Known about the structure:
By secondary structure, the protein is an all-alpha fold. It has helices at about 5-25, 30-40, 45-65, 70-90, 95-115, 125-140, 145-150, 155-180, 185-195, 195-205, 210-215, 220-235. The protein contains twelve helices and no strands.
Amino acid sequence: xxxxxxxxxxxxxxxxxxxxxxxxxxxxxxxxxxxxxxxxxxxxxxxxxxxxxxxxxxxxxxxxxxxxxxxxxxxxxxxxxxxxxxxxxxxxxxxxxxxxxxxxxxxxxxxxxxxxxxxxxxxxxxxxxxxxxxxxxxxxxxxxxxxxxxxxxxxxxxxxxxxxxxxxxxxxxxxxxxxxxxxxxxxxxxxxxxxxxxxxxxxxxxxxxxxxxxxxxxxxxxxxxxxxxxxxxxxxxxx
Length: 239
């Protein structure tokens, strides 16, 4: 079992991140990843992938009817080649430097999304976003921003359900590839399992916030969350 200090600090970050993701659609990884990295970088990304893999199940249980199945059909398969890139990064390169580059790209994408041009989840866009998300999620445990940006103009339930479906499939792919290549060990899996009660608590805390988010605040909340994730990736690379 992880030590009590890790469980207290990382658990608090997971509760906050899960509450954000429960209402907006993403956020657990961006809040908890830097905290867990600072406490024990050797647990990343597997421990957080375990925790983030459970939260989509709760979201899908209540909002599965709003899933964009067409979007998942294009985006999820594209995560496979992206995850292969992410596995290579974890095995051979410094994930922090990749995080800085990805973070910068995320911030540029947020800036472009503020322009009058509206990006839609077309097959080509989903393929590209799915590939980038796979690489980001596997290497850094933060893979939501590319897909979230494509759905920023959709309604709240559709965003949350579609992102949950994408996360569930994508995280399973990432964990399978990391395990198959020897990048996941029992210590990381145990730490992730120990954080699961915090995920449940955060999900329950975030549910009352959905109404506020859905009443015209979703796009602003989503863009702010994605922008924070990009900033977190950049800052984390220099810590």
